[in-house]
Amino acid sequence: MEWNFRSAGELAAALRAGEVSSAELTDAAIAGIERDDKLINAICVPDFDRARAAAHRADQARARGEDRPLLGIPVTVKESYNMVGLPTTWGMPQYQDFVPAEDAVQVSRLKAAGAVVLGKTNVPLGLQDLQSFNEIYGTTNNPWNRGRTSGGSSGGSAAALASGFGALSIGSDLAGSLRTPAHFCGVYAHKPTLGLAATRGMVAPPAPALPVDLDLAVVGPMARTARDLTVLLDVMAGPDPLTLGVAHEVTLPPARHDRLGDFRVLVLDQHPFIATGAAVRAGVHRVADALVASGARVERRSPLLPDLAEAATLYTQLLFSGSTARFPVDTYEQLRARAAGLSADDHSLDAARLRGMVSSHRDWIEVNNRRELHRHGWRQLFGEFDVVVCPITPTPAYPHDHDPDLLERRLDIDGVEYPYFDQLVWAGLATMPGLPATAIPTGRSPEGLPVGVQLIGPMFQDRTTLRLAELLEQQIGGFRQPE
What we know:
This protein is α+β, with helices and mostly antiparallel strands. It has helices spanning about 10-15, 20-40, 50-65, 105-110, 155-160, 180-185, 225-235, 280-295, 310-320, 330-340, 350-355, 360-385, 425-430, 460-475; strands at about 45, 75-80, 115-120, 135, 140, 140, 145-150, 170-175, 190, 220-225, 265, 295-300, 385-390, 410-415, 415-420, 435-445, 450-455. Among the domains are: about 10-260, Alpha-Beta Complex (Amidase signature (AS) enzymes); about 310-370, no CATH class. The strands form four sheets. An eleven-stranded mixed β-sheet has the order 1-3-2-8-10-9-16-17-13-11-12, with helices on both faces. A two-stranded antiparallel sheet has the order 4-5. A two-stranded antiparallel ribbon has the order 6-7. Strand 16 and strand 17 form a beta hairpin.
């Protein structure tokens, strides 16, 4: 029996029924990686000996009557998470020998839940790209078309899942880094509400793993089914035990609805800053049609929706505001001079990026105040709607582009070129206000590439988007093994 493409839920049921052992599942996953990953390059740091030992311990624990959420399930971990005994480089050659002294909080939670970690998955340099390649580990290819990217920065995790290399993975998301790879590779991912899952130990080397509160960035689950996302999120959710965890526990509210026809959904497929490609629009419409057919209330516009252009501008400024913190002084001063020369009427995203790079603390406070107004607007919107359905990026996976100057790259959308980073506006729609967003596959493009959409929900009501993802999976289908 082929186990490598089964869901984590199916594997857990088989383990409990005694149909298979964790050792067998782990050996099958390792055999698949050794056979197929030469062409994909998703697993950049294998940890097979320790995985086999962990699987043996899981089988012994089950024989003693133990049962934990992920007991004996093979999984992978994004390279950017600290893991004792393995390098954490973030793709940066100067840190290829850096080995952390302790596990990241989420790695510890995986192990406590009984998961068997097969190894770490590839990332872009410094996690700063929508593709996954670096000088240390090379390029991760899309399992559907090896000439195209798997996405980034959790591209190795998405490619691993699509290739059957483990049933689950954990990644991170600042600029769509969970959702974009899921969309490109045809799998599921969930960007949790900001602050829901502790991030300590998901830190660039050689910085110490401190319990800091990150702005915009989150850690979250990836899987081949929507239900598996929920199971893994339950393992990951909760504050850092060194800080808020001393006094607080997390209890997420249940999903707003349990039937597809009861959901109130706002559907978006157009953005003022960038076109939406035909393949992605078709995916959005496929979801909208399924909702309408099930009796859900579906709207295409609402006066309550926060202004998308301003949202994109605020997100861009916040995203780039920390990017120059370690720049040489002369480089920073050159950027300041360029920003001073911008016209006050220049409201382009290029201008927003430049202004963000040189923003003062006073500037940041003003942008943050505008963000709070947007958060208030989202609260009002979610009084009338349960979920917003919209694109993750404007296109399916595109060909590898390793131009080192990311600002000079261009994205082709149905024959028209746009600045590469402009595609982030859809991901930023949920990231800027800190909302939960679930990426789901919706089918394939005419070229056979996966296409996904995101389901954005109210803050800390992650179960609402996850439940809708499960219901849509039943209605329109979900993950398909690459052909």
